[in-house]
Amino acid sequence: MKLKIIFFILVFQNVFCQEKYHFDNYLTSHVKNYQSGYDDELIEVMNRMDSTLLLVIQIKGDKKIVTLNDLKKEKIFIFNMDFKFKNLKSLKKLDSPVKFNKHNTKKIEDSIGITEVAEFENDTIKNTKIVHLTKFLLSDKTKIYREYFYFFEIKKEFNFEESLKLKLKLNKKFNIEFKEDENLYKILSLKEGKILIDTEFKDYVNEEFDLNFVVDEEATNNLLTLKSKIKHN
Questions:
Q1: What is the 3-state secondary structure (H, E, C) of 72-133?
Q2: 13: burial class by Cβ within 10 Å (0-12, 13-18, 19+)?
Q3: Cα dist. 171→22, 124, 168 in Å?
Q4: What does each of the 233 residues of the chain score in pLDDT, given as a tens digit?
Q5: Between vectors from CA 161 to CA 156 and to CA 164, what angle results, nearest 5°?
Q6: What three-state secondary structure class fits 47?
Q7: Residue among 148, 200, 140 at smallest CA distance from 174
Q8: CA 226 to chain centre
Q9: d(CA 194, CA 199)
């Protein structure tokens, strides 16, 4: 009898995998990609103590897709979401994701070599700061690889991780000074002189939340096998 119980437990563990993740803040933004036609609301759920975790809720009309990236374990979990997001506690309704293994990918910038130049101006009327960051190829310093415009204003509640890290980088590398409550609220990404991506941050909230879910490994493997067959047929 004991052997049967042990056998059942082992089978259950192999088929179903329990996962648990902790988050403590989320950032809401509106992102428009002029190249792909992407025009969605994004909610990025994060953990200040672990930058390898990121849960992204992509909202386009009534359709919602939730993707959890675990860079440390090289896993991606994708959930269907059929309810309205109110706060992190509402994510308790998420269930039965599909899991994919994430392959390590090296940034293109790391392989081709990039150098950066930055300039800024203060708008004393609107009380904002605009930083223009230009990335050049190391192999040809006259060729612009990418351009970014970063917009900062006095928003004490917008002290999210990306804003803090960017301010630290711009200060350390380009000696651009920021007030303590001066935070990022908009990014324009340009390619070949044209706006590629327009990101505007809408809201930032601190909230503690533990996400627990069970992954059906068998269902995931069946889906991956089916996708592989379709790809090779």
A1: CCCEEEEEECCCCCCCHHHHHHCCCCEEEECCCCCCHHHHHCEEEEEEEEEECCCCEEEEEE
A2: exposed
A3: 31, 20, 5
A4: 544 444 334 443 444 578 899 999 999 999 999 988 889 999 999 999 999 999 999 998 888 999 999 999 888 999 989 999 999 999 999 887 887 776 555 555 555 688 999 999 998 888 899 999 999 988 777 789 999 999 999 988 888 989 999 999 999 999 999 998 999 999 999 999 999 999 999 999 999 999 998 886 654 444 333 333 333 33
A5: 65
A6: coil
A7: 148
A8: 28
A9: 15
Count of alpha carbons within 13 angstroms of residue 208, beta-carbon side: 0
Supply the pTM of this predicted model. 0.79
Fill in the DSSP letter of residue 181: T
List, in sequence order, every residue forming a beta bridge with 80; answer none if it has no partner: 65
Place of tokens 């309704």: 93
Q: Which residue has the tokens 């627990």?
A: 212
